[in-house]
Amino acid sequence: MKISDSAIERLRAAAESPDLDGTRYRMVGKLGQGGMSVVYRVEDSVLDRQVAMKIANVPDGDSDLAARLLREAKIIAQLEHPGIVPVHDVGTLSDGRVYYTMKLVQGERLDEYAIRMSTLPERLRLLQRICDAVGFAHAHRVLHRDLKPQNVMVGPFGEVLVMDWGLSKIVHEAERAAIPVSTLPQNAQTPVDTTAHGAVLGTPGYMAPEQERGEVAAISERTDIFSLGAILQFLVRGLPESSSHVARPRVLAAIAQKATAESPSARYQSVADLSADLAAYLDGLPVQAYPEGRLGALRRWAARNRVWLLLVLAYLVMRTILILWRRP
Amino acid sequence: MNKVILGLVLGGILGAFDGMTAWFTPAVRNQLLGIVIGSTVKGIIAGVCIGYFARKVRSLPLGILFGLGIGLILAFAVAAMPNPSGQHYYFEIMLPGAIVGMIVGYATQRFGLAPQPATQNVRGALPR
Protein backbone atom coordinates (compact mmCIF):
# COMPACT_ATOMS: atom_id res chain seq x y z
CA MET A 1 0.00 0.00 0.00
CA LYS A 2 1.33 3.42 -0.96
CA ILE A 3 0.90 6.42 1.29
CA SER A 4 0.84 9.85 -0.34
CA ASP A 5 3.30 12.59 0.62
CA SER A 6 0.55 14.74 2.02
CA ALA A 7 -0.66 11.90 4.21
CA ILE A 8 2.90 11.39 5.48
CA GLU A 9 3.15 15.11 6.15
CA ARG A 10 -0.11 15.02 8.11
CA LEU A 11 1.08 12.02 10.11
CA ARG A 12 4.37 13.76 10.88
CA ALA A 13 2.56 16.93 11.95
CA ALA A 14 0.26 14.89 14.19
CA ALA A 15 3.24 13.08 15.72
CA GLU A 16 5.09 16.34 16.36
CA SER A 17 2.02 18.11 17.65
CA PRO A 18 2.21 18.54 21.42
CA ASP A 19 -0.24 16.78 23.64
CA LEU A 20 -2.43 19.51 25.14
CA ASP A 21 -4.50 17.14 27.27
CA GLY A 22 -4.94 18.45 30.75
CA THR A 23 -4.73 22.07 29.60
CA ARG A 24 -7.49 24.46 28.66
CA TYR A 25 -6.14 24.71 25.11
CA ARG A 26 -6.97 22.92 21.87
CA MET A 27 -4.51 22.77 18.98
CA VAL A 28 -5.36 24.79 15.87
CA GLY A 29 -2.09 24.88 13.96
CA LYS A 30 1.59 25.68 13.91
CA LEU A 31 2.66 29.31 13.53
CA GLY A 32 6.44 29.11 13.51
CA GLN A 33 9.48 27.39 14.85
CA GLY A 34 12.71 28.57 16.42
CA GLY A 35 15.75 26.73 17.69
CA MET A 36 14.51 26.79 21.27
CA SER A 37 10.76 26.74 20.87
CA VAL A 38 7.76 26.26 18.63
CA VAL A 39 4.82 28.64 18.47
CA TYR A 40 1.33 27.24 17.88
CA ARG A 41 -2.06 28.80 17.34
CA VAL A 42 -4.34 27.29 19.98
CA GLU A 43 -7.93 27.75 21.08
CA ASP A 44 -8.53 28.74 24.69
CA SER A 45 -11.58 26.62 25.56
CA VAL A 46 -12.42 28.61 28.69
CA LEU A 47 -12.35 32.11 27.21
CA ASP A 48 -13.27 30.87 23.73
CA ARG A 49 -10.57 32.74 21.89
CA GLN A 50 -7.45 31.93 19.94
CA VAL A 51 -4.05 32.63 21.46
CA ALA A 52 -0.44 31.88 20.57
CA MET A 53 1.30 29.16 22.57
CA LYS A 54 5.08 29.00 22.78
CA ILE A 55 6.36 25.59 23.79
CA ALA A 56 9.94 24.56 24.59
CA ASN A 57 11.30 22.54 21.71
CA VAL A 58 12.93 19.75 23.70
CA PRO A 59 10.48 17.28 25.17
CA ASP A 60 12.79 15.84 27.82
CA GLY A 61 12.03 18.47 30.39
CA ASP A 62 15.45 20.09 29.97
CA SER A 63 15.56 22.18 33.09
CA ASP A 64 17.74 24.94 31.64
CA LEU A 65 15.56 25.38 28.58
CA ALA A 66 12.43 25.28 30.72
CA ALA A 67 13.92 27.88 33.01
CA ARG A 68 14.79 30.09 30.04
CA LEU A 69 11.27 29.93 28.66
CA LEU A 70 9.79 30.58 32.05
CA ARG A 71 12.16 33.51 32.53
CA GLU A 72 11.19 34.92 29.13
CA ALA A 73 7.50 34.66 30.04
CA LYS A 74 8.11 36.34 33.38
CA ILE A 75 10.03 39.17 31.75
CA ILE A 76 7.30 39.81 29.18
CA ALA A 77 4.63 39.55 31.87
CA GLN A 78 6.29 42.44 33.69
CA LEU A 79 6.06 44.60 30.62
CA GLU A 80 2.43 45.63 30.44
CA HIS A 81 2.50 48.04 27.54
CA PRO A 82 0.30 48.41 24.44
CA GLY A 83 3.41 47.96 22.30
CA ILE A 84 4.49 44.69 23.90
CA VAL A 85 2.68 41.42 23.29
CA PRO A 86 1.03 40.34 26.58
CA VAL A 87 1.54 36.93 28.21
CA HIS A 88 -1.66 35.24 29.39
CA ASP A 89 -0.63 32.00 31.03
CA VAL A 90 2.31 29.74 31.87
CA GLY A 91 2.23 25.98 32.42
CA THR A 92 3.70 22.54 31.83
CA LEU A 93 2.45 19.96 29.34
CA SER A 94 1.97 16.29 30.20
CA ASP A 95 5.37 15.50 28.59
CA GLY A 96 7.09 17.96 30.92
CA ARG A 97 7.58 20.74 28.41
CA VAL A 98 7.06 24.29 29.61
CA TYR A 99 4.78 26.58 27.63
CA TYR A 100 3.35 30.01 27.83
CA THR A 101 0.46 31.57 25.98
CA MET A 102 0.31 35.09 24.70
CA LYS A 103 -1.87 37.32 22.57
CA LEU A 104 -2.24 36.04 19.04
CA VAL A 105 -1.04 38.94 16.95
CA GLN A 106 -2.66 39.02 13.56
CA GLY A 107 -0.93 41.55 11.42
CA GLU A 108 2.08 42.09 9.27
CA ARG A 109 5.75 42.15 10.08
CA LEU A 110 7.28 45.60 9.78
CA ASP A 111 9.49 44.58 6.87
CA GLU A 112 6.35 43.63 4.93
CA TYR A 113 4.16 46.44 6.22
CA ALA A 114 6.80 49.09 5.42
CA ILE A 115 6.31 48.48 1.69
CA ARG A 116 2.85 50.05 1.98
CA MET A 117 4.01 53.01 4.07
CA SER A 118 4.68 55.61 1.43
CA THR A 119 5.75 58.64 3.42
CA LEU A 120 8.72 59.23 5.67
CA PRO A 121 6.74 60.89 8.52
CA GLU A 122 4.46 57.84 8.62
CA ARG A 123 7.49 55.56 8.96
CA LEU A 124 9.16 57.74 11.58
CA ARG A 125 5.99 57.89 13.68
CA LEU A 126 5.84 54.12 13.61
CA LEU A 127 9.47 53.96 14.73
CA GLN A 128 8.60 56.33 17.58
CA ARG A 129 5.99 53.83 18.75
CA ILE A 130 8.59 51.07 18.69
CA CYS A 131 10.83 53.40 20.71
CA ASP A 132 7.98 53.88 23.21
CA ALA A 133 7.71 50.12 23.78
CA VAL A 134 11.48 49.60 23.99
CA GLY A 135 11.86 52.64 26.24
CA PHE A 136 9.19 51.20 28.53
CA ALA A 137 11.09 47.89 28.69
CA HIS A 138 14.31 49.76 29.46
CA ALA A 139 12.57 51.62 32.25
CA HIS A 140 11.82 48.16 33.68
CA ARG A 141 15.49 47.27 33.19
CA VAL A 142 14.75 44.85 30.35
CA LEU A 143 16.78 44.80 27.13
CA HIS A 144 15.37 43.23 23.97
CA ARG A 145 18.70 42.48 22.23
CA ASP A 146 17.09 41.28 19.00
CA LEU A 147 15.28 44.29 17.58
CA LYS A 148 14.76 44.16 13.83
CA PRO A 149 11.85 44.79 11.44
CA GLN A 150 10.99 41.09 11.46
CA ASN A 151 10.35 41.29 15.21
CA VAL A 152 7.86 44.13 14.98
CA MET A 153 4.25 43.41 14.08
CA VAL A 154 1.77 45.99 12.86
CA GLY A 155 -1.82 45.02 13.56
CA PRO A 156 -4.87 45.62 11.38
CA PHE A 157 -5.72 48.80 13.30
CA GLY A 158 -2.18 50.15 13.09
CA GLU A 159 -1.15 48.90 16.52
CA VAL A 160 2.58 48.30 16.81
CA LEU A 161 3.82 45.33 18.83
CA VAL A 162 7.41 44.46 19.61
CA MET A 163 7.71 40.68 19.49
CA ASP A 164 10.16 37.92 20.28
CA TRP A 165 11.63 38.77 23.64
CA GLY A 166 13.41 35.43 23.61
CA LEU A 167 16.82 37.07 23.86
CA SER A 168 15.69 39.68 26.34
CA LYS A 169 17.76 40.25 29.40
CA ILE A 170 17.40 42.09 32.65
CA VAL A 171 20.08 44.77 32.93
CA HIS A 172 22.78 44.17 35.51
CA GLU A 173 21.38 40.79 36.40
CA ALA A 174 23.70 38.48 38.22
CA GLU A 175 24.35 36.10 35.37
CA ARG A 176 27.11 37.67 33.35
CA ALA A 177 28.67 34.61 31.83
CA ALA A 178 29.90 35.21 28.33
CA ILE A 179 27.53 33.72 25.81
CA PRO A 180 29.13 32.73 22.52
CA VAL A 181 27.83 34.53 19.50
CA SER A 182 27.11 32.38 16.51
CA THR A 183 28.59 33.40 13.24
CA LEU A 184 25.80 33.46 10.79
CA PRO A 185 26.13 32.67 7.13
CA GLN A 186 23.08 34.72 6.20
CA ASN A 187 23.44 38.10 4.59
CA ALA A 188 22.40 41.29 6.31
CA GLN A 189 18.89 41.22 4.97
CA THR A 190 18.14 37.67 6.01
CA PRO A 191 16.14 37.40 9.17
CA VAL A 192 17.30 34.72 11.54
CA ASP A 193 14.48 33.60 13.71
CA THR A 194 16.10 30.68 15.39
CA THR A 195 17.56 31.08 18.82
CA ALA A 196 19.69 28.10 19.57
CA HIS A 197 19.99 27.03 23.16
CA GLY A 198 23.08 28.54 24.75
CA ALA A 199 23.81 30.94 21.93
CA VAL A 200 22.85 34.47 21.03
CA LEU A 201 21.58 34.86 17.51
CA GLY A 202 20.56 37.91 15.67
CA THR A 203 20.46 39.51 12.29
CA PRO A 204 23.77 40.97 11.17
CA GLY A 205 23.20 44.62 10.45
CA TYR A 206 20.85 45.01 13.41
CA MET A 207 23.23 43.74 16.08
CA ALA A 208 25.41 46.31 17.85
CA PRO A 209 29.19 45.79 17.48
CA GLU A 210 29.59 44.88 21.15
CA GLN A 211 26.86 42.26 20.76
CA GLU A 212 28.52 40.80 17.66
CA ARG A 213 31.81 40.60 19.54
CA GLY A 214 30.08 38.76 22.37
CA GLU A 215 30.99 41.38 24.96
CA VAL A 216 28.13 40.53 27.27
CA ALA A 217 29.30 42.94 29.95
CA ALA A 218 29.15 45.82 27.46
CA ILE A 219 25.55 45.11 26.50
CA SER A 220 23.26 47.87 27.69
CA GLU A 221 20.32 50.02 26.60
CA ARG A 222 22.67 51.44 23.95
CA THR A 223 22.73 47.99 22.32
CA ASP A 224 18.99 48.24 21.62
CA ILE A 225 19.47 51.85 20.52
CA PHE A 226 21.89 50.62 17.85
CA SER A 227 19.21 48.22 16.58
CA LEU A 228 16.62 51.02 16.55
CA GLY A 229 19.06 53.12 14.50
CA ALA A 230 19.44 50.22 12.08
CA ILE A 231 15.64 49.98 11.82
CA LEU A 232 15.58 53.73 11.09
CA GLN A 233 18.08 53.19 8.27
CA PHE A 234 15.94 50.32 6.97
CA LEU A 235 12.83 52.52 6.96
CA VAL A 236 14.55 55.42 5.20
CA ARG A 237 16.27 53.15 2.67
CA GLY A 238 13.01 51.45 1.79
CA LEU A 239 11.11 54.61 0.85
CA PRO A 240 9.36 54.26 -2.51
CA GLU A 241 10.89 56.19 -5.43
CA SER A 242 7.84 58.45 -5.70
CA SER A 243 8.33 59.78 -2.17
CA SER A 244 12.06 59.39 -1.75
CA HIS A 245 12.50 63.14 -1.24
CA VAL A 246 13.56 63.51 2.37
CA ALA A 247 13.47 66.90 4.08
CA ARG A 248 16.74 67.79 5.85
CA PRO A 249 18.46 64.56 4.74
CA ARG A 250 21.68 65.40 6.58
CA VAL A 251 19.80 65.79 9.84
CA LEU A 252 18.07 62.43 9.42
CA ALA A 253 21.38 60.78 8.49
CA ALA A 254 22.96 62.33 11.61
CA ILE A 255 20.22 60.82 13.80
CA ALA A 256 20.77 57.38 12.29
CA GLN A 257 24.54 57.76 12.59
CA LYS A 258 24.36 58.76 16.22
CA ALA A 259 22.06 55.83 17.02
CA THR A 260 24.35 53.35 15.25
CA ALA A 261 27.69 54.76 16.39
CA GLU A 262 30.43 52.15 16.85
CA SER A 263 31.00 53.15 20.45
CA PRO A 264 28.03 52.84 22.82
CA SER A 265 29.08 56.06 24.55
CA ALA A 266 28.71 57.97 21.26
CA ARG A 267 25.14 56.75 20.79
CA TYR A 268 22.00 58.23 22.29
CA GLN A 269 22.09 57.49 25.98
CA SER A 270 18.42 56.57 26.13
CA VAL A 271 15.63 55.56 23.78
CA ALA A 272 13.76 58.66 24.94
CA ASP A 273 16.59 60.81 23.53
CA LEU A 274 16.35 59.06 20.16
CA SER A 275 12.57 59.39 20.16
CA ALA A 276 12.85 63.07 21.09
CA ASP A 277 15.20 63.66 18.15
CA LEU A 278 12.78 61.90 15.81
CA ALA A 279 9.95 64.08 17.11
CA ALA A 280 12.09 67.21 16.74
CA TYR A 281 13.00 66.20 13.18
CA LEU A 282 9.33 65.69 12.32
CA ASP A 283 8.44 69.09 13.82
CA GLY A 284 11.28 70.87 12.03
CA LEU A 285 13.04 71.63 15.31
CA PRO A 286 16.78 71.34 16.10
CA VAL A 287 17.97 67.84 16.93
CA GLN A 288 20.61 66.71 19.39
CA ALA A 289 22.47 64.69 16.74
CA TYR A 290 23.02 67.58 14.35
CA PRO A 291 24.36 70.79 15.88
CA GLU A 292 23.51 73.64 13.52
CA GLY A 293 25.01 77.11 13.03
CA ARG A 294 23.04 80.37 13.02
CA LEU A 295 22.55 80.18 9.27
CA GLY A 296 21.29 76.63 9.54
CA ALA A 297 18.90 77.63 12.32
CA LEU A 298 17.64 80.55 10.21
CA ARG A 299 17.13 78.31 7.18
CA ARG A 300 15.25 75.77 9.29
CA TRP A 301 13.10 78.51 10.85
CA ALA A 302 12.31 79.91 7.40
CA ALA A 303 11.41 76.45 6.09
CA ARG A 304 9.20 75.82 9.09
CA ASN A 305 7.44 79.20 8.83
CA ARG A 306 7.16 79.34 5.05
CA VAL A 307 3.49 80.28 5.01
CA TRP A 308 3.94 82.91 7.70
CA LEU A 309 6.88 84.49 5.87
CA LEU A 310 5.05 84.44 2.54
CA LEU A 311 2.03 86.20 4.04
CA VAL A 312 4.12 88.89 5.72
CA LEU A 313 6.14 89.35 2.54
CA ALA A 314 2.94 89.55 0.47
CA TYR A 315 1.61 92.22 2.84
CA LEU A 316 4.79 94.29 2.67
CA VAL A 317 5.03 94.03 -1.13
CA MET A 318 1.35 94.92 -1.53
CA ARG A 319 1.60 97.86 0.84
CA THR A 320 4.76 99.16 -0.87
CA ILE A 321 3.14 98.93 -4.31
CA LEU A 322 0.04 100.77 -3.08
CA ILE A 323 2.11 103.51 -1.44
CA LEU A 324 4.19 104.02 -4.60
CA TRP A 325 1.06 103.92 -6.78
CA ARG A 326 -0.63 106.72 -4.81
CA ARG A 327 2.46 108.94 -4.73
CA PRO A 328 1.86 112.25 -6.46
CA MET B 1 -2.52 82.88 25.58
CA ASN B 2 -5.75 81.50 24.19
CA LYS B 3 -6.61 81.80 20.52
CA VAL B 4 -9.22 84.55 20.95
CA ILE B 5 -6.84 86.74 22.96
CA LEU B 6 -4.05 86.03 20.47
CA GLY B 7 -6.33 87.06 17.61
CA LEU B 8 -7.37 90.21 19.50
CA VAL B 9 -3.78 91.27 20.30
CA LEU B 10 -2.33 90.40 16.89
CA GLY B 11 -5.31 91.88 15.03
CA GLY B 12 -4.98 95.09 17.06
CA ILE B 13 -1.21 95.41 16.51
CA LEU B 14 -1.36 94.63 12.80
CA GLY B 15 -4.40 96.88 12.40
CA ALA B 16 -2.58 99.77 14.06
CA PHE B 17 0.52 99.15 11.92
CA ASP B 18 -1.63 98.96 8.79
CA GLY B 19 -3.32 102.24 9.73
CA MET B 20 0.02 103.94 10.30
CA THR B 21 1.09 103.19 6.74
CA ALA B 22 -1.46 105.87 5.74
CA TRP B 23 1.28 108.32 6.67
CA PHE B 24 2.88 107.50 3.31
CA THR B 25 -0.24 108.76 1.52
CA PRO B 26 -0.01 112.58 1.79
CA ALA B 27 -3.65 113.05 0.84
CA VAL B 28 -4.87 111.41 4.06
CA ARG B 29 -1.95 112.26 6.38
CA ASN B 30 -4.01 114.84 8.25
CA GLN B 31 -6.52 112.13 9.20
CA LEU B 32 -3.86 109.71 10.41
CA LEU B 33 -5.09 109.44 14.03
CA GLY B 34 -8.62 108.56 12.97
CA ILE B 35 -7.32 106.06 10.43
CA VAL B 36 -5.07 104.36 13.00
CA ILE B 37 -7.88 104.12 15.55
CA GLY B 38 -10.33 102.82 12.97
CA SER B 39 -7.85 100.33 11.58
CA THR B 40 -6.98 99.11 15.09
CA VAL B 41 -10.64 98.59 15.98
CA LYS B 42 -11.17 96.77 12.68
CA GLY B 43 -8.13 94.57 13.41
CA ILE B 44 -9.40 93.78 16.91
CA ILE B 45 -12.87 92.82 15.67
CA ALA B 46 -11.38 90.68 12.89
CA GLY B 47 -8.86 89.12 15.33
CA VAL B 48 -11.57 88.15 17.85
CA CYS B 49 -13.71 86.58 15.10
CA ILE B 50 -10.75 84.72 13.62
CA GLY B 51 -9.54 83.58 17.06
CA TYR B 52 -13.01 82.30 17.91
CA PHE B 53 -13.13 80.45 14.60
CA ALA B 54 -9.70 78.91 15.36
CA ARG B 55 -11.07 77.64 18.69
CA LYS B 56 -13.88 75.85 16.89
CA VAL B 57 -12.20 74.70 13.69
CA ARG B 58 -8.71 73.18 13.65
CA SER B 59 -7.63 73.56 10.06
CA LEU B 60 -4.82 75.76 8.77
CA PRO B 61 -6.27 76.23 5.26
CA LEU B 62 -9.76 76.97 6.62
CA GLY B 63 -8.29 79.33 9.22
CA ILE B 64 -6.43 81.29 6.54
CA LEU B 65 -9.49 81.30 4.29
CA PHE B 66 -11.70 82.54 7.13
CA GLY B 67 -9.15 85.26 7.92
CA LEU B 68 -9.18 86.30 4.28
CA GLY B 69 -12.99 86.47 4.27
CA ILE B 70 -13.33 88.43 7.51
CA GLY B 71 -10.45 90.72 6.50
CA LEU B 72 -12.13 91.47 3.18
CA ILE B 73 -15.59 92.04 4.64
CA LEU B 74 -14.44 94.41 7.39
CA ALA B 75 -12.06 96.22 5.06
CA PHE B 76 -14.88 96.64 2.55
CA ALA B 77 -17.09 98.12 5.26
CA VAL B 78 -14.36 100.65 6.06
CA ALA B 79 -13.49 101.35 2.43
CA ALA B 80 -17.13 101.91 1.58
CA MET B 81 -17.01 105.05 3.76
CA PRO B 82 -15.61 107.85 1.57
CA ASN B 83 -13.07 110.37 2.86
CA PRO B 84 -14.13 114.05 3.22
CA SER B 85 -13.30 114.68 -0.44
CA GLY B 86 -15.70 111.84 -1.39
CA GLN B 87 -12.93 109.53 -2.55
CA HIS B 88 -12.91 105.78 -1.83
CA TYR B 89 -9.73 103.76 -1.18
CA TYR B 90 -10.95 100.24 -1.92
CA PHE B 91 -7.64 98.75 -3.07
CA GLU B 92 -5.55 100.48 -0.39
CA ILE B 93 -7.79 99.25 2.41
CA MET B 94 -9.17 95.92 1.16
CA LEU B 95 -6.05 94.25 -0.21
CA PRO B 96 -3.82 94.76 2.86
CA GLY B 97 -6.83 94.16 5.14
CA ALA B 98 -7.36 90.76 3.51
CA ILE B 99 -3.70 89.79 3.92
CA VAL B 100 -3.70 90.94 7.55
CA GLY B 101 -6.75 88.70 8.07
CA MET B 102 -4.86 85.79 6.53
CA ILE B 103 -1.87 86.42 8.79
CA VAL B 104 -4.08 86.44 11.88
CA GLY B 105 -5.88 83.32 10.58
CA TYR B 106 -2.57 81.54 10.19
CA ALA B 107 -1.26 82.64 13.59
CA THR B 108 -4.40 81.64 15.49
CA GLN B 109 -4.36 78.19 13.94
CA ARG B 110 -0.64 77.59 14.56
CA PHE B 111 -0.30 79.24 17.94
CA GLY B 112 -2.43 79.98 20.98
CA LEU B 113 -3.96 77.56 23.42
CA ALA B 114 -7.01 75.61 22.42
CA PRO B 115 -9.57 74.81 25.13
CA GLN B 116 -8.79 71.51 26.84
CA PRO B 117 -11.41 68.77 26.73
CA ALA B 118 -13.00 67.95 30.06
CA THR B 119 -11.23 65.08 31.82
CA GLN B 120 -13.10 61.83 32.15
CA ASN B 121 -13.14 59.53 35.09
CA VAL B 122 -11.49 56.24 34.24
CA ARG B 123 -13.31 53.45 36.00
CA GLY B 124 -12.29 50.45 33.84
CA ALA B 125 -10.82 47.87 36.18
CA LEU B 126 -11.52 49.64 39.46
CA PRO B 127 -13.59 47.58 41.89
CA ARG B 128 -16.97 49.00 42.72
Structure description:
The complex is a heterodimer of chains A (328) and B (128). Chain A is elongated. The model of chain A is unreliable at 174-199 (pLDDT under 50). In chain A, helix 4 packs antiparallel against helix 8. Chain A has 3 domains: 9-103, Phosphorylase Kinase, domain 1; 109-282, Transferase(Phosphotransferase), domain 1; 294-326. Helices cover 39% and strands 15% of the residues of chain A. Chain A is of the alpha+beta class and 328 residues long. Chain B has helices spanning 3-20, 32-56, 60-79, 90-110. Chain B is elongated and about 55 Å long. The A-B interface holds A 307-308, 311-312, 314-315, 318-319, 322-323, 326, 328 and B 18, 21, 24-27, 60, 64, 91-92, 95-96, 99-100, 102-103, 106-107, 110.
Q: Characterize the largest beta sheet of chain B: strand count, sense, and whether it forms a barrel.
A: none
How many E-type strands of chain A?
A: 10
End-to-end separation of chain B:
41 Å
Beta percentage of chain B is under 5%
Overall CATH architecture of the largest domain in chain A: Orthogonal Bundle
Helix content of chain A: 25-40%
Query: How many structural domains can be distinguished in the coordinates of chain B?
Result: 1
What class do helices, strands and sheet pairing of chain A give? alpha+beta
Interface with most residues: A-B, 12 and 19 residues
Task: Provide the succession of SSEs of chain A.
Answer: HEEEHEEEHHEEEEHHHHHH
Shape of chain B: elongated
What is the count of distinct domains of chain A? 3
User: What is the CATH C-level name of the largest domain in chain A?
Assistant: Mainly Alpha
Q: What proportion of the residues of chain A form beta strands (DSSP E)?
A: 5-15%
Mean pLDDT figure of chain A: 83
* Assembly level: heterodimer
How many strands of chain B? 0
